[in-house]
Amino acid sequence: MEGYIVKLFPIALAALCCGSGIASAHNYRLNTLTIDHPFARATPPGAKSGGAFLVVDNAGKVPDRLLRASSPAAGAVELHQMAMDNGIMKMRALSAMDVPPGGRLELKPGGFHLMMIDIKQPFKTGDHVPLTLTFEKAGSIDVVLEVESMGAAAGAHKP
């Protein structure tokens, strides 16, 4: 029996380690908010800005608002929205983004997003970039952006 346990220990340990990585699924919890899969797109050499994306789910009964974001990897992080205006894609800065009660805020390519301005160095696939999000009611939380390929799309990380 003892030899059986010793043989299974490495397998059990590997399953536990892999399982814990899958269980976390790169999300964060702040009060009633869940921040899921924050990521940035890789940037070309010499780029001075880059986009960051994530999903915020609000399990609470009251609305919240994303007020600001910051990162030591960029001179500034602005809340932005891309939208079509008379057939032309335009980007504009926002003062805040609403997170409805029982709803979600999706920051994804081609829509709401975080614009990281004056980045200190290009983002390379596989890099990890620290980011602080500040919400009106829930407060602040530190997350890590996983840098994905230049063409990474929203939801591409999910199986």
Describe this structure in words.
- With 159 residues, the chain is mainly beta.
- It has one domain (27-148): Immunoglobulin-like.
- Helix content is 14%, strand content 52%.
- It contains one helix and eleven strands; from the N terminus they run H-E-E-E-E-E-E-E-E-E-E-E.
- The protein has one helix at residues 2-24; strands at residues 27-30, 33-41, 49-58, 64-70, 74-85, 88-94, 97-99, 104-107, 112-119, 128-135, 139-148.
- Strands 1, 2, 3, 4, 5, 6, 7, 8, 9, 10 and 11 form an eleven-stranded mixed β-sheet that branches.
- Strand 10 and strand 11 form a beta hairpin.
- The longest helix has 23 residues, at 2-24.
- The radius of gyration is 19 Å and the shape is globular.
- The model is unreliable at 1-24 and 155-159 (pLDDT under 50).
Q: Can you give the helix content as a percent range?
A: 10-25%
CATH topology: Immunoglobulin-like
The assembly state of the depicted protein chains is single chain
Strand content: over 45%
What is the CATH superfamily label? PCu(A)C copper chaperone
Mean pLDDT comes to 83
Q: What structural class is derived from the secondary structure elements?
A: mainly beta
Question: What is the CATH architecture descriptor?
Answer: Sandwich
Uncertain runs are 1-24, 155-159
Overall 3D form: globular
The secondary-structure element order is HEEEEEEEEEEE
Count of the separate structural domains? 1
> How many strands, what sense, and barrel or not for the largest sheet?
11 strands, mixed
The CATH class: Mainly Beta
- Tally of helical segments: 1
How many strands in all? Answer: 11
* Global Rg: 19 Å
Distance between the termini: 38 Å
